[in-house]
Sequence to fold (150 residues):
Amino acid sequence: MGAVMRSENYSRAVQGWMAGCGAATIVLSGSLLFVPGTTSNGIVSFLVAAVFIAWVAILVFIVTGGLTLIPAAAIVWISERFRIRSILFFGCMGAVMGGLTVYLLQVGFTKPTKPPGLDWLYVSAGLAAGLAYWRVAGRFAGARRADSEP
Fold:
């Protein structure tokens, strides 16, 4: 039969997904701090840029959550169904989801003059998201399923 997810599993999965979105946001927003950190004329100009980037991070978190909701739900379902608890699985799936999402956005919204390639920033953000999901929820995937089967 199919995997039975209880309310505590839903809660853990949602918490893991939110942690993954937060990790991806930290990677993406942290990369935005690199330029002002290396080119600013002083601490004040760096702090002004950091405050602006903090507001951008909120938007990045919301967009990340919106773009990953359905693919992440499919990966969570697969991991629960087959009791996949591997950190390698979640890290790889996060990296694939990060790279594939930006690839599909490039193809869908622009007319590239050359074939779009992988953007390693988004792959690394996806990897961080997958590892964060595993830390919060993925290592418990399918744990309660054995209790519910006769």
The radius of gyration is 18 Å. The CA atoms of residues 38 and 87 lie 34 Å apart. Helices lie at 7-32, 34-39, 43-81, 87-109, 120-136, 145-148.
